[in-house]
Amino acid sequence: xxxxxxxxxxxxxxKEVQNEASPQSCPDGADLDRFKVYRMRWFIxxxxxxxxxxxxxxxxTFAPVADESGAALGVTVEQVNWLSLVYMVLAIPLxxxxxxxxxxxxxxxxxxxxxxxxxxxSVLRVVGVLGRWVPPAGRFPVVLGGQLLCAAAQPLVIFSPxxxxxxWFPRQQRASANMAASMANPLGALIANILSPxxxxxxxxxxxxxxxxxxxxxxxCCLATVGIRSSAPPTPPSASAELSTSEPFLQxxxxxxxxxxxxxLLVCFGSGMAVFTCFSSLLEQILCVKGYTNDFAGxxxxxxxxxxALGAAALGFYVDRSRKFTEATKVNMCLSSLGCSAFAVFxxxxxxxxxxxxxxxxxxxxxxxxxxxxxxxxxxxxxPVGEATSAGLIFIAGQVLSVxxxxxxxxxxxxxxxxPLSVCAExxxxxxxxxxxxxxxxxxxxxxxxxxxxxxxxxxxxxxEESGVKKKNGTHTPALIDTTHTHIITDTPALSHTHxxxxx
Length: 504
Known about the structure:
The structure is a single chain. The longest helix has 29 residues, at 174-202. The protein has helices at 40-59, 66-73, 77-104, 107-128, 136-158, 160-168, 174-202, 206-227, 239-242, 249-257, 260-288, 294-322, 325-346, 353-367, 370-382, 387-411, 433-453, 459-472; strands at residues 414-415, 430-431, 480-481, 501-502. Helix 11 packs parallel to helix 16. It is globular, with a radius of gyration of 24 Å. It is 68% helix and 2% strand. The protein is mainly α. The strands form 2 sheets. It has a two-stranded antiparallel sheet with strand order 1-2. A two-stranded antiparallel sheet has the order 3-4.
């Protein structure tokens, strides 16, 4: 059974909780009775999912309705793009601090800080479009200030899934937990792609749009502040959590820079993240030139993300049981490269709604689903480097490349003097033929390099297996629960379980 008490609510005796693995799932017969899981992990996972979803909604609030947003704020479409671009720009300098915070302070303060920044930013955006309080010339700067606060929250949220999965979840649930927390981000983007065009078409009021998006941010901030009481459970859920002795941040970075497999994953998947970011941010501007409306662009973005979430769920379930992280990633990257290439062709052809929608779905199904598996793969190939460090550096690479790709792609566009099919806002009609081909080429290049050259052993799984063999051979006696003392929980990610266990 699972412990339904919140960590830190110690009592005079220890309740029996669910073991990490049954004898059937542990073929080596290792004694894993010391590994326990707690129901509180599901609440923390829920909060992280909601926070990730809310932050992504705030990120892409304006992208599906760039024309209308620019008109309401009195700025150009290029300036509206900065409301999305600030997420990438600000995340780069803040990422190192976030990695340190996760590894040094733990999940609880990281998630609570992220929730508060997310909430304050969403509220400031609403204030920015209040006509009585803010003059027209000040609307965009205030809204941009709110986006900066939301952007500061993004690394705190994005880096947390691998840490949560490693600290709170048993081995057979890690990939699925990482998938759920990670895919909440594209789910938020999906909601934004649907909700933003709907609200602007129905109400035509940017204030209502921003007010709606602020509600989830306020709710999840309350849940995180009140509900999350500990960074780590009283007892470890797996051998790797028990043996966790993550390297210090700078030492971990040095180890990663000497890890060939990790560097390949960093470059190839970082480039893939940049492609996804550019695709989501520029989709409406790419399609409007050929006569596709904002509503249709929102549907395509929604299909891209929804299919990606479904693919991630299936892939996470598969790798949790097969442990074929590398094979699954390579196959999906190859299939997603076909979808990306097809989009580069069909997006430049008019009156092909079905084809455009299908290729967006295929690109999302095989492309987005890679993300949580790649994050787990980064931990496996870099263990014992901390989860936040290994996953965080890939995110930093993705953000840096996103900024570069966005500037390059927009620089490659050409103004169109005459485009009778265009439904873009005045001054927003550009040819995207060359940029979308470059985008597809970048994704295909990263796929080829990864498939041909990436090979690694799963170091975390090997450490767990070796730990199990040692227990079986009697080289280390399993921990005995001390039922005479109350647990004392501290908000540090480095799990230390000697305070509630004795060894013989």
